[in-house]
Design goal:
Helix 1 runs antiparallel to helix 2. This protein has three helices and two strands, in the order ββααα. Helices cover about 45% and strands about 5% of the residues. With about 110 residues, it is mainly α. The two termini are about 25 Å apart. A two-stranded antiparallel sheet has the order 1-2. The longest helix has 23 residues.
Length: about 110
């Protein structure tokens, strides 16, 4: 059984996972650029796992830095990718943001 994808805010900026907003990737990225960044992210995440299993704190720190760089490149971290000056609510609980009413309407019976 596959689960439904998480809801995306009407402006396309965030996904909602367990009641928390997570910034989406920059939609202006080209397909090749996105592909390269996602591949780098997946390699870095795998390296984090290997370093943790090996209890190698130095390697883990380096791999986590690579995860961060890939996420910044994708637009999921760092400065917001939108240009209208709207505040960034990345990692905020949705009920503490302007998206609260929209989300409540989604989950209301």
């Amino acid at each position: 059984m596959t689960s439904a994808p998480p809801p995306t805010t009407p402006d396309g900026r965030y996904l909602v996972v367990k009641g928390r907003l997570w910034r989406r990737s920059n939609p202006a990225l080209g397909p090749r650029q996105r592909e390269l960044l996602v591949a780098a992210l997946m390699r870095a995440r795998a390296d984090v796992g290997r370093a943790k299993r090996a209890k190698d704190a130095s390697a883990e720190r380096l791999a986590r830095a690579r995860v961060h760089r890939a996420k910044v490149g994708l637009g999921e971290r760092g400065p917001p990718w939108w240009t209208d000056g709207a505040r960034d609510f990345n990692r905020h609980l949705v009920h503490n943001t302007p998206y609260a009413a929209w989300f409540q309407a989604l989950v209301a019976p």
